C-alpha cells in the first residue's frame, strides 16, 4: 500500500489488506478485509462510497462502480452463499458499468484453475 501512495496512484483496490488507515481516501468493508483507496487529485474525479458490506465495499467513480471483495477460504459454504447473495443484491442496484475486483477464494477451470470447486461453481452461477 505504501508504494501505491508514493507512486501517487489515483485508485487502488485491495483484498485482505494488512492495514487500512482510517483517513480520507479509504473506503473499506465492515470487516476491514476489502478496501478501495482513492485520491481525487490523481484521478481528476471524486470517488464516492456507495455501500459497505461484510466482505465487500462499493464505490462510484464517474459512471463506473468499483467493488472490492474478499471472502476467507475458511468460511462455510453457507456463509459463502450469503456473501454472494449480499454481493448480488448490491450489484443489481448499481446502474452503469461495474468493475468487480477481489479474492473470492474460488477455483474454476473457467478462469484457469486446474479444477473447479464448489465455490467456483457458485461464482460461475
UniProtKB/TrEMBL annotation:
<dbReference type="Pfam" id="PF14529">
    <property type="entry name" value="Exo_endo_phos_2"/>
</dbReference>
<dbReference type="InterPro" id="IPR005135">
    <property type="entry name" value="Endo/exonuclease/phosphatase"/>
</dbReference>
<dbReference type="InterPro" id="IPR036691">
    <property type="entry name" value="Endo/exonu/phosph_ase_sf"/>
</dbReference>
<feature type="domain" description="Endonuclease/exonuclease/phosphatase">
    <location>
        <begin position="65"/>
        <end position="122"/>
    </location>
</feature>
<protein>
    <recommendedName>
        <fullName>Endonuclease/exonuclease/phosphatase domain-containing protein</fullName>
    </recommendedName>
</protein>
<dbReference type="GO" id="GO:0003824">
    <property type="term" value="F:catalytic activity"/>
</dbReference>
